[in-house]
Design brief:
Number of helices: 3
Strand content: 15-25%
Radius of gyration: 13 Å
Largest sheet: 3 strands, parallel
Shape: globular
Order of helices and strands: EHEHEH
Strand order of the largest sheet: 1-2-3
Helix content: 25-40%
């Protein structure tokens, strides 16, 4: 597995519904496939949650929805804390 290490991708999100699908589709379309996404939604109040829910059954995408807005640093740290690699 040394030649194919697992890559964790931490994505904080706050009200980026306009861009979040393009972001996730870009990751899904990469040629390198040994990755996991940890996307932390920071209590968005736009259409982000609806878009993200369409990805909840993807094997390599882990979604977390915060109950209050805590900022991008908290989201990144939360993603790192929950990652496995």
């Amino acid at each position: 597995m040394l030649n194919n290490p697992l890559i964790d991708i931490i994505i904080p999100n706050y009200n980026k519904g306009k861009y979040i699908k393009e972001c996730l589709e870009s990751v899904l379309n990469q040629t390198y496939k040994n990755w996991k996404v940890y996307l932390v939604d920071d209590c968005s109040n736009d259409n982000s949650k609806e878009i993200l829910k369409s990805y909840e059954n993807k094997e390599n995408i882990n979604l977390f929805f915060l109950q209050e807005n805590l900022g991008p640093s908290y989201c990144r740290n939360y993603g790192v804390k929950n990652s496995n690699s």
